[in-house]
Amino acid sequence: MKKVHLFLIALLITTIAAAQTPQLINYQAVARNNSGQALANQTIKIRISLNAADANSAMTFYSETRTVTTNTLGLFNVQIGASGASSTYGNISNTEWTDGSKTRTIRVELDVNNSGVFTDMGSQQLVSVPFALAANTAVNSTKIGGRTVDAVSAPTNGQVLTWSSAAGKWQPSTIASSAPVFKVFTGQVNNIIASSPNWIFIGQSQDITLNAGQYIGANFSAVLGLNSGTANQVSLCACYQSSGGGTISPFTPTTFMEAPITATRLTFSFSGAVVPGSGTYKVGACVRNNSGVALNGNDYYSGYIQAF
């Protein structure tokens, strides 16, 4: 049988970042006889096998056989994985190129007489460029953090991927978005009794429902005064209370406003923010009067509370 030498010219993969990565490997070689002469203008058969091996096993994960015609220099070109092969084994599109634990090689066999008898021309390790197929994971990712992405459920506009412990995969889901809630306050400040260690609402409170992680911010102004004398240790802050009742709590327990109130009416401005957790709350402007003097010369107050 005539001996044939195969001289490898180039082996590369072309990837396209802006579109689906082509699952093809460009292979080019020159077929020569045992005298080193090129097999020019000759129709031959080539069988190419892609193999993977580690310390424990070795396997052929893709193989194809096709007929090619050399040019005047004995040169032929093949796109491994393209249509036109007379027979194939495996699916090159399902190859896990990102698994670095395996050594991958390409094995080439030739049948120059088209007799069905192939001569093994040897194997060569695939390095660097062929592994650019892994760039496909950046275009058509099937895993995030090593965990599978659901490839069956079609996402709809606005959905995001969330992890499903039950399904064991990332799945598209709709996250409830909460539009900002704006509450406006205005009205008369009621008389505020003396010696009250607890926070009380100024005027009417309003209900607000929050999701987990939402915060509420507030800004208020209130005109306070006495008929006579001075009231020290008067504290002002925005407050919240569970809709079912209970303690009225300041938005900022340690940084609220504290000022003396006199017979001269003055405008006091105060603000704050808090993340109370999911639930429905009563919110509003509050005062805590530890002065021992009733605040009975008050006027109007106004402000707003907004939830984000």
- Globally, the shape reads rod-shaped
User: What portion of the residues fall into strands of 2 or more residues?
Assistant: over 45%
CATH C-level class of the largest domain is Mainly Beta
CATH topology of the largest domain: Immunoglobulin-like
The assigned structural class equals: mainly beta
N-end to C-end Cα span: 82 Å
Oligomer: single chain
Order of helices and strands: EEEEEEEEHEEEEEEEEEEEEEE
Instruction: Please summarize the sheet with the most strands.
Output: 6 strands, antiparallel
Write down the Rg: 39 Å
Task: Label the CATH architecture of the largest domain.
Answer: Sandwich
Number of strands: 22
User: Percent helix among the residues?
Assistant: under 10%
Average pLDDT for all residues: 84
- The name of the CATH superfamily of the largest domain reads Immunoglobulins
- As residue ranges, the low-confidence spans are 8-19
Query: How many helical elements?
Result: 1
Topology:
Blueprint: E1 4-12, E2 25-33, E3 43-53, E4 58-69, E5 75-80, E6 87-90, E7 103-111, E8 119-125, H1 136-139, E9 143-144, E10 147-148, E11 160-164, E12 169-173, E13 181-188, E14 200-201, E15 206-210, E16 216-224, E17 230-242, E18 249-250, E19 257-262, E20 266-274, E21 279-289, E22 300-307
Antiparallel strand pairs: 1-2, 2-5, 3-4, 3-7, 4-6, 7-8, 9-10, 11-12, 13-22, 14-21, 15-21, 16-20, 16-22, 17-18, 17-19, 17-21
